[in-house]
Amino acid sequence: MRVAVSLTALAAGAMLLAGCGKKQESPEQPAAPTEPASAPAAAPTAEQIKAMLASLPAPYNAGDVANGQTKFAQCRACHTTEQGGANMTGPNLWGVFGRKAGVVADFSYSDGLKASGITWDAAQIDKWITNPRAVAPDTRMSFLGLKDPKDRIDVVAYLKTATTAPQ
């Protein structure tokens, strides 16, 4: 009986945490899509990945995309990267490069992040994933940071390839 109660409590807690950072919708109003409905972007080719990486400044342009994808796995609990993907506990990251912080529709950001004036680029994403609270002390993001500089470089390289439409 104790195990069933503990599992029930854990499940209830997980459901509460899953809603953190999301705007609450009234039952009468369906949630608006985060972006216009469109087909998901096709996976980039090796040549397109090479071009995307070349568009990044050093040292990010030499990042290991495969390692970045592995390290990003911990971020997937809260973020999607697909075009038209849903906001989760964190906002969808599609199109993050060049985007102002705090502007994804239907996502409730902290006032500090909305007022930060940040435009996401490789260096700013690196700084953010080092320690989000150092950038925006009132952020709702609970991630403690990725301490290894090489892993952050690789995550930035991966994000560029996972959140940008191939040209």
What would your notes on this structure say?
Helix 3 crosses helix 7 (about 150-165). The protein is built from seven helices and no strands. The protein has a single domain (about 45-165), classed as Cytochrome Bc1 Complex, Chain D, domain 2 (Orthogonal Bundle), CATH 1.10.760.10. It starts with a helix and ends with a helix. The chain is an all-alpha fold and about 170 residues long. The chain has helices spanning about 1-20, 45-55, 65-70, 110-115, 120-130, 130-135, 150-165. The radius of gyration is 17 Å and the shape is globular.
Task: Kindly report how far apart the N and C termini lie.
Answer: 57 Å
Count of helical stretches = 7
Helix content: 25-40%
Write the element-wise H/E pattern from the N-terminal end onward: HHHHHHH
Write down how many β-strands occur, each being a DSSP E stretch of 2 or more residues. Answer: 0
The radius of gyration over CA amounts to: 17 Å
Described by strand count, sense and barrel closure, the largest sheet is: none
CATH architecture: Orthogonal Bundle
- The average pLDDT value, as a whole number, equals 82
pLDDT < 50 stretches? 1-37
Q: Please give the CATH class.
A: Mainly Alpha
**CATH fold category name:** Cytochrome Bc1 Complex, Chain D, domain 2
Determine the CATH superfamily: Cytochrome c-like domain
Report the principal-axis shape. globular
- Class based on secondary structure composition and strand pairing: mainly alpha
Number of domains: 1
- Into which percentage range does the β-strand content fall? under 5%
